[in-house]
Specification:
This protein has five helices and eleven strands. The strands form two sheets. Strands 1, 3, 5, 6, 7, 8, 10 and 11 form an eight-stranded mixed sheet that branches.
């Protein structure tokens, strides 16, 4: 009975903890992407000068140009963890396989709820670029620094990033990232998930200790010896008295008792 109750309790705790468990991403893909962008940075380190005057492209929406490929990498941040209120860096790689050169105008991003992209959480700051021309059959990398609101609750959100560029004075945009990020509390040693897992582990240890204590008590009771019980002592003495009645032995006992009186 105790074992069944323990199993049910453990199953309930695991079901509660299931939303906090996350599936690990493949590190090999991240490594290959990081290597590709590193090569791009070395080849085009003179491109992507950030301008002081940042234009507002939050409401702009354009179609992608053919022959343009993009890639995104979070340097030294494979888990894509973003601390609320603190700056996070990512690298946007762009390859121009078209016939004309292009000019990169800006890089922007926005945060959405993971289950519905129509629910906008935050528009992040757009970063404008000057002298960011990418010739045909060339590639370049552009750094992008962003910070989510310090009031944003920790959890999983979707980040949608776009890069805006011009080809023959015609604006276009391409999506360089459309995936999840993990927002955590800034400067916090322990996140809510960590506190929950620590509490869960402590509760499991307490339950295990109680179960072991109960098993030890149950075994100790079995090992105790049962006390000896005398059966029939009084009834035997009564039968002996009835059998000796009327004999010389009982008469001598009666005489002794009379003399004492």
């Amino acid at each position: 009975m105790a074992a069944t109750s323990l199993r049910v309790l453990l199953l309930a705790l695991l079901l509660i903890a299931s939303p906090f468990l996350q599936v690990a991403r493949s590190e090999s893909d991240s490594d290959s992407e990081s290597d590709s962008v590193s090569e791009v940075v070395e080849e085009n380190s003179d491109l992507g000068i950030v301008g002081d005057d940042v234009q507002d492209f939050a409401d702009a929406s354009f179609s992608p140009a053919p022959g343009i490929e993009t890639i995104c990498v979070f340097p030294k941040n494979k888990a894509k963890t973003v601390a609320a209120g603190e700056q996070t860096e990512l690298l946007v790689g762009l390859r121009n396989d078209g016939e004309s050169s292009l000019n990169v105008i800006a890089v922007k991003a926005s945060v959405h709820l993971p289950f519905d992209h129509n629910l906008l959480v935050q528009n992040l700051t757009a970063v404008a670029f000057n002298n960011a021309s990418v010739p045909a059959s060339a590639q370049a990398t552009f750094p992008y620094l962003f910070a989510v609101s310090k009031f944003l609750q920790p959890g999983t959100f979707d980040l949608v990033g776009t890069i805006i560029y011009e080809i023959d004075q015609q604006p276009y945009q391409s999506t360089y990232y459309n995936g999840t990020i993990e927002v955590v509390e800034a400067g916090s040693l322990l996140s809510i998930e960590s506190v929950f897992l620590i509490t869960l582990g402590f509760a499991l240890l307490v339950l295990l200790g109680l179960w072991i204590h109960g098993q030890i008590q149950h075994l100790s009771k079995k090992t105790k010896r049962a006390p000896k019980v005398e059966v029939g002592t009084r009834s035997t003495d009564a039968n002996m008295d009835e059998w000796l009645q009327g004999t010389a032995y009982t008469q001598s006992l009666n005489n002794k008792s009379k003399k004492k009186k």
